[in-house]
Amino acid sequence: MRRLMLLRHAKTEHDAPSSRDQDRRLDERGRKDAAEMGNWIGRHPPFPDAVLVSPAVRARQTWEMVWETVQDRVPQPQVEFPAELYGADPAQLLQTIHTAAASDPKQLLVVGHNPGMHELALALAGSGEPAARQALADNLPTTGLAVFEFAVDDWDDVAFRRGRLVLFVTPKLLKQTPQD
Fold it and tell me: All domains of the chain, ordered by start, with CATH?
């Protein structure tokens, strides 16, 4: 069994001081949402063994906020920043996920960008709870988290339509439900 967590970066400033999209930083809401999602992830094990983060500033900051909220509760995962995650389409994202076979984590978190992350989540979901699938079909908002399980023993076997969507969490949903 392999567990894949797809986390879209948190809310960002509209324009970076450098005018480069990759340099856009989290805004205040983004920092708050990322910390809130980190707290949620930390309370709902298992925590990822490995993390792949887009090198864009907003994705790195999202991961840093998540890690900051859980670092005293969970073991340090292996973290990588593959350049190919920035601007990747679903096929490229899946190919990057397959590279996890080398270190073979049981739980993998990917922090990236739309539209690729949303399209990948939709392509992976072969089954799962209908309400969660419908909510995911509508949008993968900033700081949205989609969690999939795959009945496979190797990351190379993760494929489109083979995942079971087990959780879909957004900052908005967290505000609407009591925290446990």
Answer: 2-176 (3.40.50.1240)
